[in-house]
Recover the amino acids of this structure.
């Protein structure tokens, strides 16, 4: 429940051990996963799309109002959305969770679970990260890497006079819970121009 954020305190070591048990790994993609000084990732391409986003308590979400799982989910989804916007597919991600001291172990596990499950849902395995705590608000940072799904990345510079700008939902309002549970979509269009679109396994992003 969103309002129940306090439970038995969890040490950083206990949380790290929990994460290692719950983060799925695919040896063919991630020969060395969480637990070492760095991860070792087998790249499918020489070109990488890289992005990073941070969400913070009091700016992007309110602890006690949002479900902890949704906080972790949002931190991943906004990165995947950026990769999708560039016409790419995600390959892997890493995350950092900074907890407010006093929040319980259940909260920490639920936020982490939101990151892990969302990353796995979209084929973007979590290969490592960091957890810590301090006396201020909760902060979750995720960095993600992907590869162009087509011959080139789709950039903002490709916009031309006369093109349409389409927006789903309303802009802004992150702190009002408008974007906490959004789903990262690969948009489809039967009328997409082949030069300005990328085919992703039968789904088309434009």
């Amino acid at each position: 429940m969103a309002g129940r954020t306090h439970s038995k305190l969890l040490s950083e070591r206990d949380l790290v051990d929990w994460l290692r048990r719950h983060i799925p790994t695919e040896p063919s993609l991630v020969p060395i996963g969480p637990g070492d000084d760095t991860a070792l990732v087998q790249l499918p391409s020489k070109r990488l799309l890289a992005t990073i986003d941070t969400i913070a308590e009091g700016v992007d979400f309110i602890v006690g109002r949002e479900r902890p799982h949704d906080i972790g989910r949002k931190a991943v989804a906004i990165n995947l959305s950026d990769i999708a916007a560039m016409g790419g597919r995600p390959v892997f991600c890493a995350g950092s969770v900074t907890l407010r001291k006093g929040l319980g172990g259940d909260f920490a596990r639920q936020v982490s679970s939101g990151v892990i499950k969302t990353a796995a849902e979209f084929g973007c395995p979590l290969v490592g990260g960091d957890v810590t705590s301090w006396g201020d608000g909760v902060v979750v940072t995720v960095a993600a890497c992907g590869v162009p799904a087509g011959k080139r990345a789709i950039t903002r510079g490709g916009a031309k006079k006369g093109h349409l700008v389409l927006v789903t939902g309303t802009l802004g309002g992150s702190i009002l819970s408008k974007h906490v549970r959004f789903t990262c979509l690969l948009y489809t269009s039967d009328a997409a121009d082949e030069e300005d679109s990328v085919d992703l396994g039968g789904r088309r992003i434009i």
Notes: The radius of gyration is 18 Å. The CA atoms of residues 11 and 137 lie 18 Å apart. Helices lie at 12-22, 68-85, 105-121. DSSP finds three helices and six strands in the chain.
